[in-house]
Design goal:
2 copies of one chain form a homodimer. By secondary structure, chain A is mainly α. Chain A has a single domain, classed as Arc Repressor Mutant, subunit A (Orthogonal Bundle). Helix content of chain A is about 50%, strand content about 5%. The first copy, chain A, contains 6 helices and 2 strands. Chain A has helices at about 10-20, 30-35, 40-55, 80-85, 105-130, 130-145; strands at about 55-60, 65-70. In chain A, a hairpin with a 5-residue loop joins strand 1 (about 55-60) and strand 2. In chain A, helix 2 crosses helix 3 (about 40-55) and helix 4 (about 80-85) packs across helix 5. Chains A and B meet through helix 1, helix 5 and helix 6 of A and helix 1, helix 5 and helix 6 of B. Chain A binds a DNA duplex (30 and 30 nucleotides) through helix 3.
Chain lengths: ~160, ~160
DNA sequence: CCATCACGTAACTTGATAAGTATCGTGATG
DNA sequence: CATCACGATACTTATCAAGTTACGTGATGG
């Protein structure tokens, strides 16, 4: 319980990207994805590398290259994506010493950490119970009742 | 959803301190508390200031001064302490843009944030359901079956 | 009265990490 | 072989709890 952390948006960014890729024909370049996210291609490649290692996407170089989804969207959960992008630390709060000598501190840390673990377990369960396909369908249900290729806007 | 954050140990540290104070006669100095936490008095004062503003403790200057509990431990929950020390951001993950123009991004952010909110609600509920007195009793039950003044060690 | 104690406060530094940036290399396309 | 797009490394930036330094103020007590 010692690491420092910032608000990590890799999960939501990646989901955003994947849904666009799902409704896009052909590979998408890091350049185009970066524009979508308001960032640059290097940041995109860094995050996408995790997805590639997990086998969820593939990348091709050269003309007409870019990123392509390589998995069944029904088989990949939000939790899988969370883990593929680094499975980052979830909480910004915690205890400072892992194994305190003080008995009071032990009890306090255990109480706080048990509570955090409970919340984390719920989060993990929820993320694990939603597939990318379901997320995509929930978008269609709300925004694209008839379905079409990707014409949805990105600022 | 934009702020950056580190692992924040103010809650667990403060609970640790309060339990010691509860089984300690007379005020405790920031100096002594700092030794307990492995930090220095200024850090202690900074955190304790929140508790003082909330009315949970009082502070006295000069000889024999220091910090004293001013609340009924049965009436103060872990959540109250969490809030008194700044109610810091709980999660290290989130979305980067609060109000995206892109409809896909909106749906994704909503899904992620709803899940986080659910986990946060559970955490808040749990923290709110435990009083300082109960936490102290759980320590006694485990470590001090007969109860006495504060002889518990702090490394 | 004055030395000491202990809190109050402000300003600055440190450490950790996601994000951002710059640069070069490599392989594929046409 | 020029261009494209990924791969990889190295460096900078932003953020915030925690740590540190320094000085002020009020209370105690000799």
């Amino acid at each position: 319980m010692d690491r420092r952390v910032r608000t990590d948006s890799r999960l939501s960014r990646t989901l955003h990207v994947l849904l666009h890729m799902a409704r896009h024909d052909g590979p998408m370049t890091s350049e185009a994805i970066g524009r979508m996210l308001g960032t640059n291609p290097v940041v995109v490649r860094r995050t996408m590398a995790g997805l590639r290692n997990a086998g969820y996407v593939t990348s091709e170089k050269g003309h007409g290259g870019g990123w392509t989804i390589a998995a069944d969207l029904n088989a990949v959960s939000l939790l899988d994506i969370h883990r593929a992008v680094g499975g980052p630390r979830i909480f910004a709060i915690g205890s400072d010493r892992a194994n305190p000598a003080c008995a009071v501190e032990k009890v306090v840390n255990a109480a706080v950490e048990d509570t955090l673990r409970e919340a984390e377990a719920l989060l993990i369960t929820r993320l694990g119970s939603v597939s990318l396909a379901e997320l995509a369908r929930s978008f269609d249900a709300r925004c694209r009742p008839e379905g079409a290729s990707d014409t949805s806007t990105c600022a």
